[in-house]
Amino acid sequence: MNVIPDSPWAAAGLDAISGRVLEHLVASPSADATTVAEAAGISPREAGEALRRLERALLVVRLDARPVRWAASPPRSSLGAVLARRRAQLATAEGILERLQEEYEAKSGPRAAHLMEVLEHEEEVSARYTQLLKQSAGEVLHLAKPPYLTGTEMSSGELGVEPGVVLRSVYETDGFTDAVSLETALHGTARGGELRLASGLPVKLVVFDRTAALLPVRSDRPEAGSLVVHSPALVEGLAALFESVWAGATPVSLESRDDWPVPGGANGPGGGAGVRGLAGPDVPRVDERTREVLRLMATGLKDDSIARVLKVSRRTVQKHVTDAGNALGAKTRFQIALRAADRGWLGPEHRAGG
């Protein structure tokens, strides 16, 4: 029997079709397969298969009639027996879980295994982070600071966080200038997350539902491994640390893309020398030089350094930045970098005129 996990009948071990058939029979004295099929919106073949499954589970009975008719067994006794068997199976599974946990602790250290995990490899960190994120049902708290580990610095939005999960992130101000940080923040806030900036973050940290926390073994070397903390007292302390940092951090408002001015459009200034008009808010067009300037700016380089790299004057760099700001409707370098990242202007795959 193929049980659909999100079916309301899954807990009873029934698939969705069998559940609909049973609901119909409970409301009818009896019915033949053709009537059941019409009522459930399924084919006669599917109805026949569902009725036989329900008969094997003792949830319906076959009446001696021509054509064959079916009737539901009393739900409290028949379905109650099914649920009792399921509870017994779950109890058995829980017993197996405890045995496996004892074996796990015997190998990894009985006093510490349930309080903390040590993840030594980048692949382990990424996989465990993904698992904890997807298991979160209430909130995820995030302190983000460089250096970043490429491949594991993934946004919650990209990993399919459950709807309704509250996302709150504080980014290190000095490190919030690279394209990875910008893209990660954009993905998170686009799904209702809140973002703040602060300088001198004490540690990189993610707290999941205040029941588990992930942090690096060494703050200066993320590749050295990470710790997953389960100790309630330690997790509570780390969550309190986040709240303290959050309270002193500066809120950042990422306005809706739909509200951003479009260069050359009715709600925005015309394109400058470095930026050409956009075909629409999701189809940016920018020349190669402006894209290079913005990309270097997003890595944290100052105007003088950008000018030396590109072999242009500082004034030329400033003009490209100003033109980009006008085109994006952004007043600060932070806003320019943030909106340019979201428009795709910082990506290496972007080309002038496309």
Main features:
354 residues, alpha+beta, Arc Repressor Mutant, subunit A, Endonuclease, Chain A, 3 domains, eight-stranded mixed beta sheet, three-stranded antiparallel beta sheet, 14% strand, elongated
Topology:
Elements: H1 16-26, E1 31-32, H2 33-40, H3 44-56, E2 60-63, E3 69-72, H4 75-108, E4 116-119, H5 122-135, E5 139-144, E6 166-172, H6 179-190, E7 194-198, E8 205-208, E9 212-216, E10 226-229, H7 232-248, E11 250-252, H8 288-298, H9 303-310, H10 314-328, H11 333-343
Helix pairs in contact: 1-2, 1-3, 2-3, 6-11, 8-10, 8-11, 9-10, 10-11
CATH hierarchy: architecture of the largest domain: 2-Layer Sandwich
**Element order, helices and strands?**
HEHHEEHEHEEHEEEEHEHHHH
How many structural domains does the protein architecture include?
3
Give the total of beta strands. 11
Description:
This protein has helices at 16-26, 33-40, 44-56, 75-108, 122-135, 179-190, 232-248, 288-298, 303-310, 314-328, 333-343; strands spanning 31-32, 60-63, 69-72, 116-119, 139-144, 166-172, 194-198, 205-208, 212-216, 226-229, 250-252. It is of the alpha+beta class and 354 residues long. α8 crosses α10 (314-328) and α8 (288-298) crosses α11 (333-343). The chain has three domains: 1-114, Arc Repressor Mutant, subunit A; 117-252, Endonuclease, Chain A (2-Layer Sandwich), CATH 3.30.870; 261-343, Arc Repressor Mutant, subunit A (Orthogonal Bundle), CATH 1.10.10.
Compact overview of the structure:
The chain is an alpha+beta fold and about 350 residues long. The protein is about 45% helix and about 15% strand.
